[in-house]
Amino acid sequence: MKYMLMICRDESVALTPEQGADMGRSTDAWIGEMERRGVRLLGQRLRPVADATTVRVRDGETLVADGPFAETKEQIGGFDLIECADLDDAIEVAAAHPVARYGTIEVRPFWEEG
Amino acid sequence: MTPDPGGAVAEAFRQEWGRVVAALIGMTGNWDLAEECAQEAFAQALKTWPRDGVPRRPGAWLTTVARNRAMDRLRRGAAEAAKLREAAVLAPIDEPADDDESGIRDDRLRLMFTCCHPALPLEARVALTLRTLAGLTTAEIARAFLIPEPTMAKRLVRAKHKIRDAGIPYRVPPAHLLSERTAGVLAVLYLLFNEGYAASGGADLVRRSLCAEAVRLARALAQLMPDEPEALGLLALMLLHDARRSARVDDAGDLVTLEDQDRSRWERSEIGEGAAVLEAALRRGRPGPYQLQAAIAACHATAPTAAETDWAQIALLYGRLARLMPSPVVELNRAVAVAMADGPAAGLELVAAIEASGDLSGYYLVPATRADLLRRLGSWAEAAASYRTARDLAATDAERRYLDRRLAEASGHAEAVGQEEAAGLDGAAGLAEASGHAEAAGPDGAAGKDEAPGPSPAQ
User: Fold this and answer.
1) Which of A93, A97, B149, B176 counts the highest number of beta carbons within 10 A?
2) Which residues from chain A sit within 8 angstroms of residue B117, using beta carbons?
């Protein structure tokens, strides 16, 4: 099954340079392991919500606004598409992600047709 | 032929429903189909058993009928709508599985773990367990949890969809997950028991039947996981509580404290079984929260009179429980036990520490316990004040009625003491009485509603 991991964390909490470096190393290690296992199909870190744009079309008019569409404490800072046998495997992969230790990983199954 | 085939079907339903559904889910991977075909198999039994007699192995008979129905439906479905994926799932049916003596593989453990998967909301875990393993109808489950039937139906449908769509595996978890997932299953069964145990009075009959279902499921789990002492511990805990159930409530529906309960109404055979199951669990040498709580319940259940209760042992067990599973509710119970063993003053010290921590602020049992200890010290006016606080925090009518009675008593004494003191008399009557509040709360208390296995504030 395919799942998207939404890597969420509180952007306003800044990491110290050491924490940032450690996070980079841990994330690289996680990516390396999950690619070696053939679990991770694709993934990308995202620019912060300050660089986000919200688009809506209402009554034929395109409404463009800045920022995220909802006020939440944690924001999506990246995503990974993974392929696993089942949810327990996906949970294990998510739990191994470094951000899981201080942020939240939302595990969403793909909407498979048929 | 059995003289009462209708009764035999009812008995088979209680005994075999979960097994039939579990086997069908294992074969088809389709939860709705499994339930429907199991239902049809029991309907078939109602028709043919009175005519042909009860089969030698009712469970195997029912599973075979249900399986044949499922295969028919899937073949028809595959032919009509080319549902090849489901047809492919049929393949394992003919493979020899690790059958037990009945010839039918017992998939109930897989079903339990899947129903209690942590990715499902807690209330869905409970409902799904009752539906698929215990065979309660959606209407019965809705009544037991006091919610409208369509809401319960939706809850069950959503849970089944999530199992399918999110890929929750139908299996007993692998070794590295087994211990935490087992704790989750035990917690659901204990919550189920507590829902039934907290119910009182005739109007709550449906809810009280939850106790019987919980005991049945715990018994099955203990059989299926013979190496898990906590499963035995949970079964023992349930049996020891259940044995005292009819004595907990008087004819008016009011709660009777442990001390005041008529011990001749306790079910001796259930206490005996609970104690034996507990002993078997403790022999494994791996104590856990349920075993310790069962040991505490056993201390109460085996005391010939309230006065002969081994409070020192109970205080010790609560101490061990608190180390294993730190919880303010456990601390509160330890305070009560210490008060009984070493005197109310020692208990009041522990209650004061709990109050200072603020962990249980707003929980009526804290002021109620304080009030009880003060009452036993003869500090009637202070006791009355604490009873009043407790009364305002109490959640159920039965709790309020109980506290009202205590409050009236304490207020009466406080007044009398005031008059006697004026006359130069000592009013401290020093009633040596067990605090029964924890019992008044039922075995769940505040913690039973949590996801974690709830420590029992009851004795």
Assistant:
1) A93
2) 87
- Asked whether B453 and B186 are in contact (CB, 8 A), the reply is yes
Query: Distance, in angstroms, between A29 CA and closest chain B CA?
Result: 22
Within the 69-88 window of chain B, which residues sit less than 8 Å (CB to CB) from chain A?
85
User: How would you label B271-297 residue by residue, b for 16+ Cβ within 10 Å and e otherwise?
Assistant: bebbbebbebbbebeebbbbbbbbbbb
The secondary structure of residue B172, as a DSSP letter, is P
Residues B28-43: what's their mean pLDDT? Answer: 95
Q: Mean pLDDT, to the nearest integer, of B157-163?
A: 96
What is the amino acid identity at position B446?
Answer: A
With contacts defined as CB-CB under 8 Å, which chain A residues touch B77?
none
**B166 contacts in chain A (CB < 8 Å):** 87, 107, 109
**B119–A87 CB contact, under 8 Å:** yes
Q: Which residue has the tokens 């180390």?
A: B323
Q: Given a cut of 70, is residue B435 above it in pLDDT?
A: no
CA angle A46, A50, A54 (to 5 degrees): 85
Residue B318 tokens read as 């609560």
3-state secondary structure of A88: helix
CA B69 – CA B51 distance, rounded (Å): 21
Tokens, residue B418: 């005031």
Instruction: Give the pLDDT of residue B77.
Output: 82
The residues pairing with A8 across neighbouring beta strands, listed in sequence order, are: A76, A104
Q: Do A88 and B165 touch (CB under 8 A)?
A: no
Locate the domains of chain A by residue range.
2-109
A88 interaction partners in chain B (CB closer than 8 Å): 168-169, 173, 177
Reply yes or no on whether the pLDDT at B175 is more than 50.
yes
Low-confidence ranges of chain A (pLDDT < 70): 69-71, 114
Looking at CATH, the fold of the domain delimited by A2-109 is given as Alpha-Beta Plaits (3.30.70)
Cα B121–chain centre separation = 18
- The beta-carbon neighbor of A109 closest among B165, B169, B177 is B165
